[in-house]
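Inverse folding, one chain.
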């Protein structure tokens, strides 16, 4: 996937620092959270969609980190930095294992299809491989099949 973004060559040198540093701290905060947590929900107050996402995760007893930035009436410029960084136009922004999966309805679809659990299990299996090189072959095959890499039918 490629996404059009204005190149540095097309930004005047006198404003490049402003472009690079404006609200950089909020981006670093989200990046750090997505590195350190399996599931991160980035939302805002008064918006029902982040609440729906959190409720969906609570219903299936999955731990997550919630980052809230302002409301409809405040901190919209800071949230805009996240939108420009991620390319995602709305809140919530939901990350699983550092991967942006979309918003509340996208999360619900992944839960219903079983793909969310597969994403989490696959990552756990890879982590266990790093700790224990000897893993039972059937575990690998089960995880491989659960990610739907083979579409036989």
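Residues assigned per position:
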């Amino acid at each position: 996937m490629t996404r059009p973004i204005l190149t540095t060559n097309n930004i005047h040198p006198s404003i490049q620092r402003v472009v690079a540093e404006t609200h950089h701290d909020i981006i670093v905060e989200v990046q750090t959270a997505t590195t350190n947590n399996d599931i991160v929900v980035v939302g805002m107050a008064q918006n029902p969609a982040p609440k729906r996402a959190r409720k969906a995760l609570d219903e299936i007893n999955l731990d997550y980190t919630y980052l809230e930035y302002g409301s409809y009436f405040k901190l919209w410029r800071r949230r805009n930095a996240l939108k420009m960084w991620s390319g995602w136009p709305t809140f919530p922004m939901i990350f699983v294992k550092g991967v942006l999966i979309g918003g509340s309805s996208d999360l619900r679809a992944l839960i219903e299809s079983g793909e969310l659990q597969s994403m989490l299990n696959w990552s756990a299996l890879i982590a266990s491989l790093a700790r224990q090189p000897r893993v039972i072959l059937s575990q690998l095959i089960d995880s491989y099949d659960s990610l739907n890499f083979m579409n036989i039918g």
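Strands lie at 39-43, 65-68, 93-96, 99-102. The first strand starts at residue 39 and ends at 43.
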